[in-house]
Amino acid sequence: MQINLMTPVNQLGYGVAGLNIFKELRKQADVSLFPIGEPQVVNEEDAHAVRSGMSIAKFYNPDAPCIKIWHQNAMAERIGSGRFIGFPIFELDTFSDLEKHHLQSCDELMVCSQWARKVVTGSNFGYYKADGRPKLPPKTHVVPLGVDAELFPPAPARQDDKTIFFNCGKWEKRKGHDVLIECFNRAFREDDNVELWMMCDNPFIGDSNEKWRSLYKTSPLGSKIKIIPRQHSQQDVYSIMSRTDCGVFPARAEGWNLEALEMLACGKNIITTDYSAHQEFCNKDNSFLIDINEKEMAHDGVFFDGMVGKWASLGDKQKEQLVEHMRMVHGIKQQYVNGWDTQMREFSSINHQGIKTAQQFTWKNTANKIMETLNG
User: Fold this and answer.
1) Most buried among 290, 329, 360, 363, by the most CB within 10 A?
2) DSSP string covering 200-260, please?
3) Domains of the chain, start order
């Protein structure tokens, strides 16, 4: 089979997903690669793969199916005239008119989660002017994303009595960064042996990065907070993750959250909201869940204007759960290090359920699901 693949190739979310999907698909098909933007790779193996895919694209098959991994409001352009499948990764529960217009450019859609599929199938795409019949959303397939188990293997448990919490994801209100700093300061005192590591540089907000960093560093427990710059490669990301104890992701909405799944693959505990795409791979057995019982209009004054779409509301109940979860993780770590409880020691050392979950979400499985969809 031949496939025309349009995707970014870089170290951001879309780019990481696109590169990994491309590398797995090319093991099963002839893939013409059409990068969105300038490709950015960090090793010669990936560079060779990208060059090969772009070389094939010079004589692409115009009748082959085209898969576009990109934003839902930019689906107009495509390659060739074959079957066109859009693969957007979105966070809100409603589409704007612009997004629906572009999504209807696609013959079919692939989405990361059952939650995302429900958003598509439950959306009102308008009506045909001629006869007033409702427009049906494109046929939608669930294709979960993955994690590279070779890059993110289970890491040894940290043996000292410090608990290191970790968050990775672009500075955004959507990521719950405003709530995380508040709750970290509520959860602990100056004499608690804890740290919070934040790896959150956002290339899209310019000087506002410094505002976020200042919010954290000037907080009451700022001396316990470590700001980590964006890493060069996924190997570098693993190096950071492997030295932490618990990922904390109080996101109001996620299209997937690669970092949370990577932390599970490392065998780390995670705290996360029980909402949106998290529900595809986070559950009570592998995560400390923050219950979500209300939604609110999505507004941050930067990426979301509050006019279209809702996300999870993080109110007092959710903040208190986050505080309790962080305290619990720290308490478990203390019991583990001091050998107070054999059961707690086993629980704290390695998140076995997290590893088991991550083994089900591989990039190979993502590619297999795409091939099943194309052959269906």
Assistant:
1) 290
2) ---TTSTTHHHHHHHHHHTSTTGGGEEE-PPPSSHHHHHHHHTT-SEEEE--S--S--HHH
3) 2-146+363-375 (3.40.50.11930), 163-358 (3.40.50.2000)
